[in-house]
Amino acid sequence: MVNSKINLRLGTLVIGYLGILTEIVDISMLIYYGFLKCSYILTLWIIASIWNVSSELFLLVAVYRNNPHLLPVHLVTCLGGLIMMMITHMLVATSGVLHYGLVGYALFSIGFMFADVLIVLSFYHSEK
């Protein structure tokens, strides 16, 4: 039982740091390559990325301070960030910009959020 808690704790830490790294790379690549010319979509994308970084910071604070009561806050903000990102991806799809890297990133972000929610929810139930 103790070994599974350590593995879930390590998994949540890895997910937290990878989430922050993913969002930093996402914003830097978006600004550097300039995939999106519409400032409205770009602004919404940056707000969603900042929202996701704050969600991952909630996760790291909950794990390092041994406070499992913050994990539901992370889950709610994580799903809110996913909704904002999906709205952004839908706006990109309707704008006529066809870039297969953006489609791949959309699929990656959905899979990453799924893994994030699954691992954090498992860790939350093991801590309760």
UniProtKB/TrEMBL annotation:
Transmembrane segments: 12-35, 41-64, 71-92, 98-124
Transmembrane helix found in the keyword field: yes
Keywords: Membrane, Transmembrane, Transmembrane helix
Protein name: MARVEL domain-containing protein
Organism: Drosophila ananassae
